[in-house]
Amino acid sequence: MGPFVPDPISFELNLVIALLIGIAFGFVLEQAGFSSSRKLAGLFYGYDFTVLRVFFSAAVTAMGGILLLGFAGLLDTEAIYINPLWLWPAVVGGAIMGVGFILGGYCPGTSFSAAAIGKIDALFFIGGLFLGVFVFAEMFPAWEEFYYSSAFGPVRVFDTLGLSIGWFAFLLIVIALSAFAVTSWIEKRVSASAPSRQFRLRPHSIAAVATVLAGVLLISLPDRKSRVLAMVTAAEHLAACETAFMTADELAFRIIDREPNIQIVDVRDSAAFNSFALPGAMNIQVRNLFDKEWNRLFARRHVKKVLVAEHESDAIAAYHVLDELGYSNLAVLQGGLPLFKQDILSESTHEAVPLHEDVAEFRMSARETINKLIEQERQKPPAVEKKPKKVIGGC
């Protein structure tokens, strides 16, 4: 699953690729007429709303593409970086940028597009931009406290509104189409040469209806992660698919034998894992099994991946997620961690059926060895939590 930037591409090469994409983006802006300050300023004077239509179209297109790629399993939407929100600094910064937009006729991106074709006013705008950056940086201590105030973290609008992402996508489409209609009406009232006067009603109406229908489809379109999780926990799926189990005794034997071709994967939350973990276990929660950073771990076919959890059903869900993702050589710890603790790690055993002498002797030996290994791992310094790599981008 994406992000699309493969790991072998270095950070430096990423910058080169970003530069090439930026040049292509600037070319498209120029071809769309965004190198004209008069066209851009028309948004604020009401005679040309091309900017609004382009940005709404870009938002709807990108949103639909992301949702469809997530549904197809080609993009991990949770790996997309979300800019943290500092509310009041963002409001003030947006107002300053808006004033600069009206006065100069450009935003930062379009100013470079215009400068590339030799627009003198764009060069002055860029000069003012760099001057503003310099003043901001030099006087940063004066407004540092305000800069970091009202921090809300990475906020997503649909989460704040309590909507599903599909419903938010549909509403954004409706808002965009309504804005297109209203601004076209305003344009025609304000300017005799408004771009909207060239619009043909029939094809635009058909496109609007098709877009609304696409929005209706997005309402019920789950991403692949949610779809797979819902499927593997369904009773019909569990009844139709076999699950391979490993007994507590076999797992204990492999642990004390220090078998290299085994990997214990603990799918509980991090708090439970930090309070108790089997030797050599890795903590990967079920939703994170989709992350591409684990591909190398799970793709090793010669390694038996043993899924453990507090409840056996959670480990079974993880088993079928990995099976659905195409990984093999999997097993679930039978009875979950409670049974392992009872049979192997606990000294007070009251077996309904007396154990065979060899089994009892093995468990006694395993108990001592595994408890020592657990204690040794507890003495180790805590591992630095690896933060997931996010895809950073934006205008």
Characterize the structure shown.
With 395 residues, this protein is mainly α. It is 60% helix and 6% strand. It has 18 helices and 7 strands. The strands form 2 sheets. The chain has a 5-stranded parallel beta sheet. It is elongated, with a radius of gyration of 29 Å.
Question: Topology of this protein?
Answer:
Layout: H1 11-31, H2 37-45, H3 50-72, E1 85-86, H4 87-104, H5 108-116, H6 120-138, H7 140-147, E2 151-153, H8 157-161, H9 165-190, H10 201-219, H11 224-232, H12 235-240, E3 245-246, H13 248-256, E4 262-266, H14 270-275, E5 282-283, H15 295-298, E6 304-308, H16 312-324, E7 330-333, H17 336-345, H18 357-379
In a few lines, what is going on in this structure?
The chain is mostly helical and 395 residues long. Helix content is 60%, strand content 6%.
Note poorly predicted spans: none
The strand order across the widest sheet is 3-7-6-4-5
Instruction: Assign the structural class, choosing from mainly alpha, mainly beta, alpha/beta, alpha+beta, or little secondary structure.
Output: mainly alpha
Rg (C-alpha, Å): 29 Å
Gross morphology: elongated
Q: Give the quaternary arrangement of the chains.
A: single chain
Biggest sheet character? 5 strands, parallel
Task: Write the element-wise H/E pattern from the N-terminal end onward.
Answer: HHHEHHHHEHHHHHEHEHEHEHEHH
Comma- or semicolon-separated keywords:
395 residues; 18 helices; two-stranded antiparallel sheet; mainly alpha
